[in-house]
Each structure stands twice: as C-alpha cells, then as structure tokens.
Amino acid sequence: MKKLKISIVFLLLISTFLQAQDKAQGVPPAVAEKDLTAYLFVYFIGNKVEEEAVNYAVSQDGYHYYSLNGNKPVIDSKAISSTGGVRDPHILRGEDGKTFYMVLTDMTSSKGWDSNRAMVLLKSTDLVNWKSSIVNIQTTFPGNENLKRVWAPQTIYDTKAGKYMIYFSMQHAGGPDKIYYAYANKDFTALEGEPKLLYVPKSGNACIDGDIIEKDGVYHLFYKTETNTPGIKSATATDLTSGKWIENDNYLQQTKESVEGSSIFKLNNSDEYILMYDVYKKGQYQFTKSTDLENFTVIDNEISMDFKPRHGTILPITRSELKRITEKWGMPAQYPKINNNPVLEGYYADPEILYSNKTKKYYIYPTSDGFDSWSGYYFKTFSSDNLIDWKDEGVILDLKKDVSWADRNAWAPCIVEKKIKGKYKYFYYFTAAQKIGVAVSDNPTGPFKDSGKALVATKPEGIKGGQEIDPDVFTDPKSGKSYFYWGNGYMGAFELNDDMISAKKGTETVIKVDKTFREGTYVFYRKGTYYFLWSEDDTRSPNYKVRYGISKSPLGPIEIPENNIVIQGVPEQGIHATGHNSVLQIPNKDEWYMVYHRFSYPTGIKMGRAGGFHREVCIDKLEFNLDGTIKQVVPTHTGIESLK
Questions:
Q1: In 3D, which of 434, 365, 432 has the Cα closest to residue 404?
Q2: In sequence order, what are the residues at sequence separation of 6 or more whose Cβ sits closer than 8 angstroms to the Cβ of residue 311?
Q3: What's the pLDDT band for 6 if we cut at 50, 70, 90?
Q4: Distance in angstroms between the alpha carbons of the first and the last residue of the chain
Q5: CB 430 within 8 A of CB 413
Q6: Which residues, 6+ apart, have CB-to-CB distance to 599 below 8 Å?
Q7: pLDDT at residue number 644
Q8: What single string gives the DSSP state of each residue in 136-165?
Q9: What was the pLDDT predicted at 26?
Q10: What pLDDT is stored for residue 46 in this prediction?
Q11: C-alpha closest to that of 637 among 269, 326, 337, 347
C-alpha cells in the first residue's frame, strides 16, 4: 500500500508539472479583447435594388452608431452578385485575427421572395478590399431542382472540424424553411460538400435567420420561427453538427411587432451581450441586453443611429481597423475622440524607441508579451513616421531559429544606430534565458544576425543576487563612446569596444543607486546632464514606476534628486504599473517623449500575477523644469498628438 501511495503522489506531481509546462506554452491571442475598442455595423437599408447592398456604420460604445460613406454602399452589389443585389450581410473575424469573412443573400426582393438560389462569399484582410465568389446551391449540387430560396447565410468557425461553417436557411417546394450547413473550402470561395441539415424545430415549423454564438463551450442558436406566432427563439448544443439541440420554448423578442434577422454580439471588455433584431414593418431595430443569453432587457432608449438598418450584424474592431475604414469612407463628425494609448495593439512590454537617421522613421523594439510567465521567444519591431500609427514589421529575431546559445525568455531589448565607415549599422542587444546577447543588421528592421555568444552571462564581481537582464546602450554625444548597462537588483555598466559587441577591458563597474532600483536602466543626455532612469518595484505590481538620477559622467556617480519619480500609475483612471521605459528626443529639437509599458487596460489589473505579462506600450510627453529636473509625467489614455 505504501508503494502505491508513493506512486499516486508521484503521478500527481508529474501531472501537475506537465500542466504547468503546458500552461507555460500559453501564447497571446490573435486579437486581444482589450484592443477591441470600436464596433462595425454591416447592414443593408431597404427593398429597392439600390438599397440591397452592403453598408457600414461605426460605434465606439456599441450603443451609438454613425453611418459611413453618407449611408451609401461600400461594396458594389452588381460586381459581386448574380442578381444585382445582396441582403442580410453577416461578418466574422477569422481565427487568425486578421482575415474577415462576409456572407450575403444573393437576392433582389423586386424579383420575388422565392427568386434566389445563391449566396455570396467575401474575404478580406483589411475590411476595405474584398474578394468575392458566388455559390449557387441549385446548379452546384444535384437534387435541388425544386429549391425555392436560400436565405441569410452566416459563418462560424467549427473548432471540432477546424473549418469555417456556413449555415443558412433553404426552402424546397412543398416544405418548410430549414437551417442547413456546409463547410467552406480553404480559400473561402466555395462549399466543400452539399448542404446538410443543421437545425429544424421539433415541431417541424419553418425557421430562418439563424445566428450562432459560442459562450462557455455552449453554442447558442438564435432564429426566427415561422409559425402562427412568429418570433425569435433559441436552442443550444455543445456540438454544432450533433443534431442534439435543446430548444428554449420562450420567445425572446420584447415587442409585439413583426421581427426577423436577429443577431447577437458581445460588448467589448464586458460580460454583457446585445441581441438585436429587425422590426421590419416599422423600419427600426430593437436592442436588448443579457448576461446569460436567456433573459433579455430592452435598451432601446440607450441606442442611437443616424440611419435605418435592415438585417445586419455587428463586429467588434480595433482602433487600427477603425482608422482603416474611416480613412477610406470618412470619419463621422459626431464620432468621439480616439485615444492614442496604447500605441501598439496586442501585448508588448519593455519598449525601446529609436529614430533612424537612415530611414527617417521611428521604431519601437519591445518584449513580445502575453506569453505565460514571460515565456516568449521572439522579438518584433514596429515603425512609424508620426509616433501614432505603427506598422508591424514582423519578427526580427527568433531565439529558436536565430540564436544558438538560448531559446527562451526573450526580454527587454535595446538598440543603437552607428555610422561605421560611412554605412549605418544597427546593434541590437537582447535578453535571452537570463543572459544578454547582441545581433547586428544593416537595417533597423533586420534581418539581424546574432554574434554567436552572450555578451553578458555572469554577474559583476561582488554581486550575488539579481539577474543578468534589461540591457541599455547609450552613445555619449560629447565623446562618441558607447556604454552598456544592465542588471536586475544591481546596475552594471561598461564601455563598449568599437566593434560594439564586446566590453572594453577594465571599464566594468557597478553603479551605486538607492534601494528603489530594481531594473530597466535607461540613460540619455540633455544640456550637459546625464540622466539615469530605472524601474522600482516588480513588473507584476500595480505600483511599478520609474525614478531617475543625474550625473556628470556616463558611468556615474549618480546624484538622486529629492522628488525623483518620473512616472507612476493613476489608479482612478485604471492606469497601473507604468514602468520599464525608454526616452525619445525629436531630432534637432528640445522635444522629448516617454515610452513605457503598463498593465493592459482595462483587463490587466483584474488578472492578478498574470497582469505582469499582459502589458501594453504607451507614449506620453516628457518635460523638464528650468533647472533641468524632470517634471513628473502623467500617464494618459489619450496619448500624444501625431507629429507633423
């Protein structure tokens, strides 16, 4: 028995270890919910041929909507359909986060409600340009000679099948409307096979306008039942194609008027859902709200629109996606001001900023965050010409592919641009497996080639605690010499050789700071003074902040001002853990900016320890007093204005 108990304990320990290992492989989502800061409403407006088209509207809060393009179509129906018109647009964000799928009824009502046999499939990566295909069910799949209509297609990703499912209602002569499904092919241009029955009520009554949303592993199907008492009902299942739907007998619409085209979406950063439907005889929409997808409350008095939509869907979108479509079709004058912080979408931390004299652009080099327990293994960079709009330039260094001496914990990089023999070179210093390496490139976006070994792998003499992380590189404008700094728990430093990949012998030192020093050294020079910045506390702490000291030399000693906080959180605004910064000077100007990370807003503070590896990058203005001391930076959601 004793051996058995030991074995069980051992197995439990192994199981726990494997679970922990599996958890450590957690990776950032394709799109972080915290970055969904707006909504796109896709709809059509009426039964005239010119009204049967795709229209766009946008909202910041999910309650107040403004049409784009003067409420005129954003896609030419004649160019994408077989009938000259489209209705019932449904839009879906793909699993990769950046591909969008739209499906539409290929139909003009002027030809009759039983006139259509086809649907339109659209695919886009920018919400502006769409590739289209027509799928005619009757001509594509034998046995549909008596097909009368194909209505209101929608798309959902079936995780079990690993494919995109398109579901829609069809009616054959003599029978009721039923909801069918088929999987789209890889290119989203056709259906893989003939439609199969997805759902029909046990009563056998007709059902149309299906809309499916997944919540906590359960699929909720909302649909319109066509009975003596038509209305919106729902059914649930844990497997989309099992046929085992549990019907809810209750009607969900909160009106006695005729309704159709229900659609449900989740409010951003909330546990609330909005179920909306077309009150089509009244020419209006009704909005209802729920947290359980069963009990709904009317919120019409909270909703406003400057247009009258028909059967459409709403997609949560990011700030960059909002900018993309409003640059194309105009920003509504009534739309609220857009915040510019965070400057990067996604989870990123430890930002290093560079102005490149070669390209005349700005670059941010961050830690790729959102990995469980800081387990990221690659570095990216982002470019901008105005400090507001940042382009993802992709991965510039992958530890698993590009570095021989470490393959984990890719943290806190820094970079310097040097002109050597008339050509620009970029030296990129990075943390990997609690050591520091250096890679070199001819361009700020890479490719970077690792030097082949760690630049810093051991602690300075006399130092026993801390970690060999958080590099910083600084070129003294007075001497032209470059200096290197690093350390967690201590501030190590040395002068770099001209090759920029090795330490100059005899220059290594540990610079004395005070007990507030934790990590994240950053050094810059202004008007005869060397400024040393560092982070205090732990990156998992809401109180993580930046302090500073000054010196007359790039290797110290450091003098610490009495009021030396550079930036700290503003809890009442939900801003926490503002730390690990870099500083940007606009070329040839006494204009400065602070680039830093904070807990992701608004979700990070609710994550506990995980808030420390779900961080985001922000920029705010850095200003100085007349005596050269730093004015405390107040972190904001609004951020800075675009550079002219």
A1: 432
A2: 43, 44, 87, 88, 89, 152, 209, 260, 261, 278, 280
A3: very low
A4: 77
A5: yes
A6: 542, 575, 576, 577, 605, 607, 611, 612, 614, 615, 616
A7: 81
A8: EHHHHSTT-TTEEEEEEEEEEEETTTTEEE
A9: 80
A10: 96
A11: 337
User: The tokens 């339109």 sit on which residue?
Assistant: 120
24 or 578, higher pLDDT? 578
| Fold equal for 33-329 and 348-622 | yes
Q: Are 410 and 423 in contact (CB under 8 A)?
A: no
Count CB atoms within 10 A of the CB of residue 324.
15
Report the pLDDT value the prediction gives residue 23, as an integer from 0 to 100: 36
- Residue 615 CB: number of other CB atoms within 10 A? 30
Extended beta strands in 272-325, E state: 273-279, 284-290, 297-298, 304-305, 310-318
- How far apart, in whole angstroms, are the C-alpha atoms of residue 447 and residue 424? 14
DSSP β-bridge partners for residue 282 = none
Q: Which CATH architecture has domain 33-329?
A: 5 Propeller (2.115)
Domain boundaries, the chain: 33-329, 348-622
Annotate 429-476 with DSSP letters as a single string. EEEETTEEEEEEESSTT---EEEEEEEE-SPPTT--SSBS---EEEE-
- Give me 233's structure tokens: 């009902």
Which residues does 331 contact at the CB level (< 8 Å), separation at least 6?
none
> Could you tell me the two tokens for 92?
């879906």
Does 495 have pLDDT greater than 50?
Answer: yes
The answer on pLDDT for 184 being more than 90 is: yes
> Alpha helix locations (H) across 234-378?
319-329
Per-residue pLDDT tens digits for 582-604: 999 999 999 999 999 999 999 99
pLDDT higher than 70, residue 21? no
Joined tokens for residue 99: 């591909």
* Tokens of residue 47, six digits: 């039964």
Q: What pLDDT is attached to residue 227?
A: 80
Per-residue pLDDT of 360-389, as tens digits, reads: 999 999 999 999 999 999 999 999 999 999
The answer to whether residues 74 and 7 touch, using CB atoms and an 8 Å cutoff, is: no
160-166, long-range: CB within 8 Å, 24+ apart, which pairs? 160/239, 160/240, 160/241, 161/241, 163/192, 164/92, 164/94, 164/101, 164/188, 165/240, 166/103, 166/119, 166/121, 166/191
Give the separation between CA 101 and CA 459, rounded to whole angstroms: 53
pLDDT at 3 over 90: no
Record: fold of 348-622:
Tachylectin-2; Chain A (2.115.10)
Tokens standing for residue 382 = 């982002």
- Phi, psi at 268, each rounded to 5°: -60, 135
Average pLDDT over residues 567-594: 98
Joined together, the tokens standing for residue 442 give: 């001819």
Q: Which amino acid is at 520?
A: G
- Sequence length of the chain is 644
Give the closest residue to 492 by CA, choosing from 512, 516, 465, 514.
512
- Phi and psi for 579 in degrees, rounded to 5? -160, -170
pLDDT, the chain, mean? 95
> In what order do the strands lie in the sheet containing 411-420?
411-420, 423-432, 435-441, 449-456
User: What does the pLDDT look like over 34-81, one tens digit per residue?
Assistant: 999 999 999 999 999 999 999 999 999 999 999 999 999 999 999 999
